[in-house]
Amino acid sequence: MPDPATIGTPTRKRYRFREYHVTAVVDPMTLPTFSVVCVTGEDHDCGATSGELHAEGELTRWIAEHCAQTGHDFYHRTTRATLRAEPGAWQ
């Protein structure tokens, strides 16, 4: 049975966390993925997107073509790669 003197009293608990060291390594068996979104515009962004491309040259070509057609010159670029975690030691 709980002690009536401690009912409603906040309790403190101390948690200790260990740090786990992991090295993230790009998986050489997969291709990186690039994409770009046009963010040119005063009231709202254009929003045109290149879709996922696997070469920076393709990305540059898409930007050049979109810029030539619209005159837009600001873009957000995203680069994605598949990573493999290599576990390290607990600290």
Chain-wise SSE layout:
Elements: E1 20-26, E2 33-38, H1 56-70, E3 75-80, E4 83-90
Antiparallel strand pairs: 1-4, 2-3
**Largest sheet, if any?**
2 strands, antiparallel
Order of helices and strands: EEHEE
Helical run tally: 1
How do the strands line up in the largest sheet? 1-4
Shape descriptor: elongated
C-alpha end-to-end distance? 40 Å
The poorly predicted ranges are none
What's the number of extended β-strand segments? Answer: 4
Give the radius of gyration: 25 Å
Question: Would you tell me the structural class of the helices and strands?
Answer: alpha+beta
Proportion of residues in extended strands: 25-35%
Measured as a percent range, the helix fraction is 10-25%
Model description:
- The protein is an alpha+beta fold and about 90 residues long.
- The protein has a domain at about 30-90.
- Helix content is about 15%, strand content about 30%.
- It is built from 1 helix and 4 strands; from the N terminus they run E-E-H-E-E.
- It has a two-stranded antiparallel ribbon.
